[in-house]
Amino acid sequence: MAKSSWKVKMELKPIPYKKQYEQIIANKIVVWLWANIFKECLVILEENTVINDSNIIIAALEAGSIYYQDGAFYSKTGRFNNKISKELEKLGAKYSKYRKAYLIDKSKVPTEILGAIDMMKAKTAGKVLALQTFLDYQLGELNKKDKNIIFDNIVDKIMMNLQERLYKNAEQHKIELISPKLTDFRANEIAKRYTDNLNFWIKNWTGDNITRMRSMVGQMAIEGRSRQDVADYIMKEFGISQRHAMFLAKNETAIATTSYLQAKYKEEGFVFFRWHTNIDGRERPLHKQLNGKIFRFDNPPIIDERTGQTGLPGETYNCRCTLSPIASKEFWENRKKLYKVQNSLISKLRGLLNAKIK
Length: 358
Prior knowledge:
The chain has helices at 19-45, 56-63, 82-90, 111-141, 152-172, 184-222, 227-267, 285-290, 329-357, and strands at 10-11, 66-69, 72-75, 94-96, 101-103, 272-276, 294-296, 302-304, 309-310, 322-327.
Protein backbone atom coordinates (compact mmCIF):
# COMPACT_ATOMS: atom_id res chain seq x y z
CA MET A 1 0.00 0.00 0.00
CA ALA A 2 1.29 3.47 -0.88
CA LYS A 3 2.34 5.48 2.16
CA SER A 4 0.22 8.43 1.04
CA SER A 5 -2.91 6.29 1.52
CA TRP A 6 -2.49 6.10 5.30
CA LYS A 7 -3.94 9.56 5.92
CA VAL A 8 -6.57 9.54 3.17
CA LYS A 9 -10.22 9.39 4.28
CA MET A 10 -12.47 7.77 1.70
CA GLU A 11 -15.75 5.95 1.27
CA LEU A 12 -16.26 2.71 -0.62
CA LYS A 13 -19.29 2.23 -2.87
CA PRO A 14 -22.33 0.30 -1.57
CA ILE A 15 -22.46 -3.33 -2.77
CA PRO A 16 -26.06 -4.53 -3.15
CA TYR A 17 -26.63 -8.16 -4.12
CA LYS A 18 -27.82 -8.90 -7.66
CA LYS A 19 -31.61 -9.04 -7.92
CA GLN A 20 -31.65 -12.11 -10.20
CA TYR A 21 -30.47 -14.23 -7.26
CA GLU A 22 -33.60 -13.53 -5.23
CA GLN A 23 -35.74 -14.61 -8.21
CA ILE A 24 -33.81 -17.90 -8.46
CA ILE A 25 -34.35 -18.51 -4.73
CA ALA A 26 -38.04 -17.56 -4.95
CA ASN A 27 -38.46 -19.99 -7.87
CA LYS A 28 -36.94 -22.81 -5.80
CA ILE A 29 -39.43 -22.10 -3.01
CA VAL A 30 -42.37 -22.01 -5.46
CA VAL A 31 -41.30 -25.30 -7.09
CA TRP A 32 -41.09 -26.91 -3.62
CA LEU A 33 -44.54 -25.60 -2.62
CA TRP A 34 -46.08 -26.79 -5.89
CA ALA A 35 -44.52 -30.26 -5.71
CA ASN A 36 -45.22 -30.84 -1.99
CA ILE A 37 -48.57 -29.12 -1.47
CA PHE A 38 -50.53 -27.61 -4.33
CA LYS A 39 -50.04 -30.09 -7.16
CA GLU A 40 -51.40 -33.00 -5.12
CA CYS A 41 -54.31 -30.85 -3.89
CA LEU A 42 -55.43 -30.28 -7.48
CA VAL A 43 -54.92 -33.96 -8.37
CA ILE A 44 -57.25 -34.91 -5.49
CA LEU A 45 -59.85 -32.41 -6.72
CA GLU A 46 -59.75 -33.55 -10.35
CA GLU A 47 -63.12 -34.52 -11.83
CA ASN A 48 -62.92 -37.90 -13.52
CA THR A 49 -66.57 -38.04 -14.56
CA VAL A 50 -67.34 -37.04 -18.15
CA ILE A 51 -70.05 -34.37 -18.13
CA ASN A 52 -72.64 -35.25 -20.80
CA ASP A 53 -76.03 -34.09 -19.56
CA SER A 54 -78.73 -32.71 -21.84
CA ASN A 55 -80.15 -30.65 -18.96
CA ILE A 56 -78.36 -27.29 -19.20
CA ILE A 57 -78.76 -26.50 -15.49
CA ILE A 58 -77.44 -29.90 -14.35
CA ALA A 59 -74.50 -29.63 -16.76
CA ALA A 60 -73.72 -26.13 -15.40
CA LEU A 61 -73.95 -27.40 -11.80
CA GLU A 62 -71.58 -30.29 -12.53
CA ALA A 63 -69.18 -27.98 -14.35
CA GLY A 64 -69.18 -25.64 -11.33
CA SER A 65 -70.26 -22.58 -13.34
CA ILE A 66 -73.38 -22.21 -11.16
CA TYR A 67 -74.33 -23.41 -7.66
CA TYR A 68 -77.45 -23.47 -5.47
CA GLN A 69 -77.34 -21.95 -2.01
CA ASP A 70 -79.87 -20.40 0.42
CA GLY A 71 -82.79 -20.58 -2.01
CA ALA A 72 -80.96 -19.14 -5.01
CA PHE A 73 -78.82 -20.10 -8.01
CA TYR A 74 -75.54 -18.16 -8.17
CA SER A 75 -73.09 -17.84 -11.03
CA LYS A 76 -69.44 -18.39 -10.24
CA THR A 77 -68.52 -15.34 -12.35
CA GLY A 78 -71.43 -13.22 -11.10
CA ARG A 79 -73.09 -13.32 -14.53
CA PHE A 80 -75.39 -15.86 -16.18
CA ASN A 81 -75.31 -16.63 -19.89
CA ASN A 82 -78.56 -16.44 -21.88
CA LYS A 83 -79.15 -20.21 -22.08
CA ILE A 84 -78.86 -20.77 -18.32
CA SER A 85 -80.95 -17.63 -17.60
CA LYS A 86 -83.78 -18.86 -19.85
CA GLU A 87 -83.76 -22.35 -18.28
CA LEU A 88 -83.87 -20.93 -14.76
CA GLU A 89 -86.72 -18.59 -15.71
CA LYS A 90 -88.63 -21.60 -17.11
CA LEU A 91 -88.43 -23.12 -13.63
CA GLY A 92 -90.00 -19.95 -12.21
CA ALA A 93 -86.79 -18.47 -10.80
CA LYS A 94 -86.73 -14.65 -10.46
CA TYR A 95 -83.53 -12.67 -10.88
CA SER A 96 -82.48 -10.46 -7.94
CA LYS A 97 -80.18 -7.56 -8.85
CA TYR A 98 -79.37 -7.11 -5.18
CA ARG A 99 -78.17 -10.71 -4.69
CA LYS A 100 -77.09 -11.15 -8.34
CA ALA A 101 -78.80 -14.53 -8.28
CA TYR A 102 -81.93 -16.34 -9.47
CA LEU A 103 -84.24 -16.86 -6.48
CA ILE A 104 -86.35 -20.02 -6.28
CA ASP A 105 -87.60 -21.97 -3.28
CA LYS A 106 -86.14 -25.44 -2.92
CA SER A 107 -89.66 -26.96 -3.07
CA LYS A 108 -90.03 -25.66 -6.64
CA VAL A 109 -86.71 -27.02 -7.92
CA PRO A 110 -87.24 -30.20 -10.03
CA THR A 111 -86.27 -33.52 -8.39
CA GLU A 112 -83.59 -34.35 -10.98
CA ILE A 113 -81.87 -31.00 -10.38
CA LEU A 114 -82.04 -31.44 -6.59
CA GLY A 115 -80.53 -34.90 -7.05
CA ALA A 116 -77.70 -33.41 -9.11
CA ILE A 117 -77.10 -30.77 -6.42
CA ASP A 118 -77.00 -33.42 -3.65
CA MET A 119 -74.71 -35.66 -5.72
CA MET A 120 -72.36 -32.74 -6.43
CA LYS A 121 -72.26 -31.87 -2.71
CA ALA A 122 -71.51 -35.48 -1.79
CA LYS A 123 -68.71 -35.73 -4.38
CA THR A 124 -67.23 -32.42 -3.23
CA ALA A 125 -67.46 -33.47 0.43
CA GLY A 126 -65.61 -36.72 -0.38
CA LYS A 127 -62.87 -34.86 -2.22
CA VAL A 128 -62.57 -32.27 0.54
CA LEU A 129 -62.21 -35.07 3.12
CA ALA A 130 -59.39 -36.61 1.03
CA LEU A 131 -57.86 -33.14 0.66
CA GLN A 132 -57.97 -32.51 4.42
CA THR A 133 -56.37 -35.91 5.08
CA PHE A 134 -53.55 -35.05 2.67
CA LEU A 135 -53.04 -31.62 4.27
CA ASP A 136 -52.93 -33.20 7.74
CA TYR A 137 -50.27 -35.61 6.52
CA GLN A 138 -48.19 -32.82 4.96
CA LEU A 139 -48.45 -30.78 8.15
CA GLY A 140 -46.89 -33.69 10.05
CA GLU A 141 -44.15 -34.08 7.43
CA LEU A 142 -43.04 -30.44 7.39
CA ASN A 143 -40.38 -30.63 10.10
CA LYS A 144 -38.53 -33.61 8.60
CA LYS A 145 -35.03 -32.75 7.36
CA ASP A 146 -35.56 -34.50 4.02
CA LYS A 147 -38.26 -31.91 3.33
CA ASN A 148 -35.74 -29.04 3.47
CA ILE A 149 -35.05 -26.96 0.37
CA ILE A 150 -31.32 -26.87 -0.45
CA PHE A 151 -29.98 -23.41 -1.31
CA ASP A 152 -26.24 -24.15 -0.94
CA ASN A 153 -25.19 -23.66 -4.58
CA ILE A 154 -27.02 -20.39 -5.09
CA VAL A 155 -25.86 -18.99 -1.72
CA ASP A 156 -22.26 -19.88 -2.68
CA LYS A 157 -22.70 -17.91 -5.91
CA ILE A 158 -24.15 -14.90 -4.06
CA MET A 159 -21.28 -14.82 -1.55
CA MET A 160 -18.55 -15.33 -4.16
CA ASN A 161 -20.07 -12.58 -6.30
CA LEU A 162 -20.17 -10.22 -3.31
CA GLN A 163 -16.55 -11.06 -2.48
CA GLU A 164 -15.41 -10.40 -6.05
CA ARG A 165 -17.18 -7.04 -6.16
CA LEU A 166 -15.88 -6.13 -2.70
CA TYR A 167 -12.27 -6.69 -3.77
CA LYS A 168 -12.76 -4.74 -7.02
CA ASN A 169 -14.36 -1.90 -5.07
CA ALA A 170 -11.45 -1.75 -2.62
CA GLU A 171 -8.93 -1.96 -5.47
CA GLN A 172 -10.51 1.05 -7.18
CA HIS A 173 -9.94 3.03 -3.97
CA LYS A 174 -6.39 1.68 -3.62
CA ILE A 175 -7.26 -0.13 -0.38
CA GLU A 176 -5.63 -3.51 0.04
CA LEU A 177 -7.93 -6.04 1.74
CA ILE A 178 -5.88 -8.15 4.13
CA SER A 179 -8.45 -10.47 5.75
CA PRO A 180 -8.63 -14.01 4.29
CA LYS A 181 -10.87 -14.63 1.30
CA LEU A 182 -13.99 -16.76 1.70
CA THR A 183 -12.93 -20.36 2.25
CA ASP A 184 -15.05 -23.38 1.27
CA PHE A 185 -15.64 -24.05 4.97
CA ARG A 186 -16.81 -20.49 5.64
CA ALA A 187 -18.96 -20.49 2.47
CA ASN A 188 -20.61 -23.76 3.56
CA GLU A 189 -21.20 -22.29 7.01
CA ILE A 190 -22.96 -19.25 5.54
CA ALA A 191 -24.98 -21.42 3.13
CA LYS A 192 -26.10 -23.71 5.97
CA ARG A 193 -27.21 -20.79 8.16
CA TYR A 194 -29.05 -19.20 5.22
CA THR A 195 -30.74 -22.54 4.32
CA ASP A 196 -31.76 -23.21 7.94
CA ASN A 197 -33.19 -19.70 8.39
CA LEU A 198 -35.12 -19.75 5.13
CA ASN A 199 -36.47 -23.26 5.69
CA PHE A 200 -37.64 -22.22 9.15
CA TRP A 201 -39.67 -19.32 7.75
CA ILE A 202 -40.95 -21.36 4.78
CA LYS A 203 -42.16 -24.21 6.99
CA ASN A 204 -43.54 -21.89 9.66
CA TRP A 205 -45.58 -19.99 7.08
CA THR A 206 -46.55 -23.14 5.16
CA GLY A 207 -47.79 -24.77 8.37
CA ASP A 208 -50.05 -21.79 9.10
CA ASN A 209 -51.17 -21.77 5.47
CA ILE A 210 -52.06 -25.49 5.49
CA THR A 211 -54.09 -25.05 8.68
CA ARG A 212 -55.99 -22.14 7.12
CA MET A 213 -56.56 -24.01 3.84
CA ARG A 214 -57.85 -27.07 5.68
CA SER A 215 -60.39 -24.97 7.58
CA MET A 216 -61.45 -23.02 4.48
CA VAL A 217 -62.08 -26.04 2.22
CA GLY A 218 -64.10 -27.63 5.03
CA GLN A 219 -66.25 -24.50 5.24
CA MET A 220 -66.71 -24.50 1.47
CA ALA A 221 -67.96 -28.11 1.61
CA ILE A 222 -70.47 -27.18 4.34
CA GLU A 223 -71.70 -24.30 2.16
CA GLY A 224 -72.23 -26.72 -0.73
CA ARG A 225 -69.63 -25.08 -2.95
CA SER A 226 -68.56 -26.95 -6.07
CA ARG A 227 -65.37 -28.93 -6.63
CA GLN A 228 -64.27 -26.24 -9.10
CA ASP A 229 -64.76 -23.54 -6.44
CA VAL A 230 -62.45 -25.45 -4.10
CA ALA A 231 -59.89 -25.92 -6.90
CA ASP A 232 -60.05 -22.19 -7.69
CA TYR A 233 -59.48 -21.40 -4.02
CA ILE A 234 -56.41 -23.68 -3.97
CA MET A 235 -54.97 -21.89 -7.03
CA LYS A 236 -55.65 -18.52 -5.39
CA GLU A 237 -53.66 -19.71 -2.35
CA PHE A 238 -50.86 -20.82 -4.67
CA GLY A 239 -50.73 -17.29 -6.10
CA ILE A 240 -50.44 -15.88 -2.56
CA SER A 241 -47.67 -18.41 -1.87
CA GLN A 242 -45.74 -17.26 -4.95
CA ARG A 243 -45.79 -13.66 -3.74
CA HIS A 244 -44.78 -14.70 -0.23
CA ALA A 245 -41.91 -16.77 -1.66
CA MET A 246 -40.52 -13.63 -3.31
CA PHE A 247 -40.88 -11.71 -0.03
CA LEU A 248 -38.95 -14.42 1.86
CA ALA A 249 -36.26 -14.60 -0.84
CA LYS A 250 -35.75 -10.83 -0.77
CA ASN A 251 -35.72 -10.61 3.00
CA GLU A 252 -33.36 -13.50 3.76
CA THR A 253 -30.98 -12.68 0.89
CA ALA A 254 -30.71 -9.06 2.05
CA ILE A 255 -30.00 -10.20 5.64
CA ALA A 256 -27.38 -12.75 4.50
CA THR A 257 -25.71 -10.12 2.29
CA THR A 258 -25.57 -7.58 5.11
CA SER A 259 -24.21 -10.18 7.55
CA TYR A 260 -21.43 -11.22 5.17
CA LEU A 261 -20.40 -7.63 4.29
CA GLN A 262 -20.55 -6.51 7.92
CA ALA A 263 -18.24 -9.37 8.94
CA LYS A 264 -15.79 -8.55 6.12
CA TYR A 265 -15.75 -4.81 6.84
CA LYS A 266 -15.12 -5.42 10.55
CA GLU A 267 -12.33 -7.87 9.74
CA GLU A 268 -10.74 -5.17 7.59
CA GLY A 269 -10.89 -2.62 10.41
CA PHE A 270 -13.76 -0.41 9.21
CA VAL A 271 -15.53 1.33 12.09
CA PHE A 272 -18.05 3.66 10.39
CA PHE A 273 -20.54 3.36 7.53
CA ARG A 274 -22.92 5.66 5.70
CA TRP A 275 -26.58 4.70 5.35
CA HIS A 276 -28.07 4.82 1.81
CA THR A 277 -31.87 4.71 1.39
CA ASN A 278 -33.56 3.93 -1.92
CA ILE A 279 -35.76 7.05 -2.19
CA ASP A 280 -38.66 6.19 -4.50
CA GLY A 281 -41.79 6.78 -2.43
CA ARG A 282 -41.85 3.22 -1.06
CA GLU A 283 -39.19 3.75 1.61
CA ARG A 284 -39.95 3.74 5.35
CA PRO A 285 -40.16 7.27 6.81
CA LEU A 286 -37.63 6.26 9.47
CA HIS A 287 -35.15 4.95 6.86
CA LYS A 288 -35.63 8.11 4.82
CA GLN A 289 -34.42 10.05 7.88
CA LEU A 290 -31.37 7.76 8.13
CA ASN A 291 -30.34 8.37 4.51
CA GLY A 292 -26.82 9.82 4.26
CA LYS A 293 -26.11 9.63 7.99
CA ILE A 294 -22.97 8.01 9.41
CA PHE A 295 -23.03 5.33 12.11
CA ARG A 296 -20.68 2.88 13.79
CA PHE A 297 -20.86 -0.81 12.92
CA ASP A 298 -20.90 -1.63 16.63
CA ASN A 299 -23.62 0.93 17.40
CA PRO A 300 -26.16 0.90 14.54
CA PRO A 301 -29.37 2.96 14.58
CA ILE A 302 -32.95 1.87 15.31
CA ILE A 303 -34.32 0.36 12.09
CA ASP A 304 -37.82 -0.59 13.30
CA GLU A 305 -39.48 2.00 15.53
CA ARG A 306 -42.31 -0.40 16.47
CA THR A 307 -39.99 -2.98 18.06
CA GLY A 308 -36.96 -0.81 18.81
CA GLN A 309 -34.77 -3.18 16.76
CA THR A 310 -31.35 -1.78 15.88
CA GLY A 311 -29.31 -2.92 12.89
CA LEU A 312 -27.74 -2.28 9.53
CA PRO A 313 -29.39 -1.62 6.15
CA GLY A 314 -31.13 -4.78 4.93
CA GLU A 315 -31.48 -6.34 8.39
CA THR A 316 -35.21 -5.71 8.81
CA TYR A 317 -37.99 -7.15 6.64
CA ASN A 318 -38.29 -5.83 3.09
CA CYS A 319 -35.51 -3.25 3.59
CA ARG A 320 -33.81 -2.18 0.34
CA CYS A 321 -31.25 0.15 1.93
CA THR A 322 -27.48 -0.30 1.52
CA LEU A 323 -24.33 0.91 3.26
CA SER A 324 -20.90 2.20 2.28
CA PRO A 325 -17.95 1.67 4.66
CA ILE A 326 -15.86 4.74 5.48
CA ALA A 327 -12.07 4.64 5.66
CA SER A 328 -11.86 7.01 8.64
CA LYS A 329 -8.96 7.84 10.96
CA GLU A 330 -9.96 4.86 13.10
CA PHE A 331 -9.84 2.59 10.05
CA TRP A 332 -6.25 3.53 9.29
CA GLU A 333 -5.27 3.08 12.94
CA ASN A 334 -6.88 -0.38 12.90
CA ARG A 335 -5.15 -1.10 9.61
CA LYS A 336 -1.76 -0.38 11.19
CA LYS A 337 -2.58 -2.81 14.02
CA LEU A 338 -3.72 -5.48 11.54
CA TYR A 339 -0.54 -5.07 9.48
CA LYS A 340 1.53 -5.31 12.65
CA VAL A 341 -0.20 -8.57 13.65
CA GLN A 342 0.09 -9.89 10.10
CA ASN A 343 3.79 -9.07 9.87
CA SER A 344 4.41 -10.64 13.28
CA LEU A 345 2.74 -13.88 12.17
CA ILE A 346 4.74 -13.91 8.94
CA SER A 347 7.98 -13.41 10.89
CA LYS A 348 7.12 -16.29 13.24
CA LEU A 349 6.32 -18.59 10.31
CA ARG A 350 9.59 -17.69 8.62
CA GLY A 351 11.44 -18.41 11.86
CA LEU A 352 9.80 -21.84 12.15
CA LEU A 353 10.58 -22.66 8.51
CA ASN A 354 14.22 -21.58 8.89
CA ALA A 355 14.55 -23.67 12.05
CA LYS A 356 13.27 -26.75 10.20
CA ILE A 357 15.64 -26.18 7.27
CA LYS A 358 18.61 -25.95 9.62
